[in-house]
Design a protein that fits this description.
isomerase, 10 helices, PsdUridine_synth_RluA-like_CS, about 375 residues, PsdUridine_synth_RsuA/RluA, Pseudouridylate synthase RPUSD4, mitochondrial, single chain, pseudouridine synthase activity
Length: about 375
């Protein structure tokens, strides 16, 4: 039976004989608008919620490590990744909590692991980016930006000097350039150097790694070599730079050592190259200079892996155990005395010492640190 009074095609309800065309017309617009909304790109809020849900699913899929060392390694990996994603204000606040000395000329921070000093390809956030914010946190909204006085590698932790005025920064930079600044580092090494104290005086040059196009490393360029059992002078590269490092063993075990390093010169990656290629004792966590011919995670002995509670497949997450523990600046006007600055090593560094059976010399370090802090107050 045809429906009277209903010209538009509609829906029939069995037994009622009523046309639902009007209802269809009433709801057709909202349905169309909903479909169109679904086809449109996600707005920022919905996209953020979706990404957050995906990350949460990935976290739930990964089994949590039961070993406390592996948990700490995972925390460190996440921390270094978060450093590149945090807001500049958050990073500046974190740096302000790590200040070890502050006066009218200088601000000294304890640089965290994994944070680059300067920008570059792939760098989303670095220390130089947040210096204006750090200055405002310390001296108010009208404060001028702080200035870098020197640099540390991304993977190196410890003492880092900043200056309030550009002129003071230039003075400190000149002290570094003329080698008037005394720098001391701590490093945990794989194997124990022989002899346990000495000087490595071997020039360093940058070369392209074998079998690795467009990948360059620093390496040794010795001035002397062996010929028929005799030491003879060889022609070194014209690009080689003088590099001198003093070292001494502070503590050692069968398979590892804690070294105090004092670089006389300041060549790129000098300490890492001298230890790995000069003394055959690479720094723990140095995945770049543990092997010249390969760019691969550091290969560790079964004994060290057992003590650290790690598997070789997880060794790539080990951080570089190189810490700038002390820096002594000559007197700057109007200050009449030299300034000795010290930084405690990060927690992962101390934990590795304990697991490897190495002792950290705390008596002299603690006394100097107390004196420096009392002077800062």
């Amino acid at each position: 039976m045809a429906a009277s009074g209903c010209s538009a095609p509609g829906l029939w309800v069995r037994g009622s004989g009523q046309c639902l065309g009007s209802l269809f017309t009433l709801f057709s617009k909202p349905l169309c608008s909903a479909a169109a909304a679904a086809s449109r790109p996600l707005d920022a809020q919905r996209l953020a919620e979706r990404l957050r849900a995906q990350k949460q699913q990935q976290k739930t899929k990964e089994p949590a490590p039961t070993n406390p060392v592996q948990r700490r390694v995972r925390e460190l990996v996440r921390f270094t990744e978060q450093l590149q994603r945090v807001h500049p204000n958050v990073l500046a606040k974190a740096l302000s909590r790590g200040i070890v000395h502050q006066d009218q000329d200088l601000v000294v921070i304890n640089k965290p692991y994994g944070l680059p000093v300067h920008g570059g390809p792939g760098v989303q956030l670095c220390i130089s980016d947040v210096l204006p914010i750090l200055a405002k946190i310390l001296h108010g909204y009208k404060a001028k930006p702080l200035h870098l006085c020197h640099r540390l590698d991304k993977e190196t932790t410890g003492v880092m000097v900043l200056a309030w005025e550009k002129e003071v920064a230039h003075q400190v930079q000149e002290l570094f350039r003329t080698r008037q600044v005394t720098k001391k580092y701590w490093a945990v090494t794989v194997r124990v150097p022989v002899p346990e104290a000495g000087v490595v005086d071997i020039p360093i040059v940058e070369k392209e790694a074998q079998g690795q196009q467009h990948h360059h490393k620093m390496t040794l360029s010795p001035s002397y070599g062996m010929d028929d059992g005799k030491m003879v002078r060889v022609r070194s590269s014209r690009n080689a730079q003088l590099a001198v490092t003093q070292y001494r063993v502070l503590s050692s075990s069968l398979s590892a050592a804690l070294l105090e390093l004092q670089p006389v010169t300041g060549i790129k990656h000098q300490l890492r190259v001298h230890l790995s290629f000069g003394l055959d004792c690479p720094i723990l966590g140095d995945h770049k200079y543990s092997d010249w011919n390969r760019l691969a995670p550091q290969k560790l002995s079964a004994g060290i892996l057992k003590k650290l509670g790690l598997q070789q497949s997880k060794a790539r997450h080990l951080p570089l155990h190189l810490h700038a523990c002390q820096l002594t600046l000559p007197a700057l006007q109007p200050r009449k005395e030299e300034l000795t600055l010290l930084c405690k090593p990060p927690r992962y560094f101390v934990n590795s010492l304990r697991r490897l059976g190495l002792k950290m010399p705390s008596r002299d370090h603690g006394a100097d640190e107390e004196a420096t802090q009392s002077g800062a107050q």
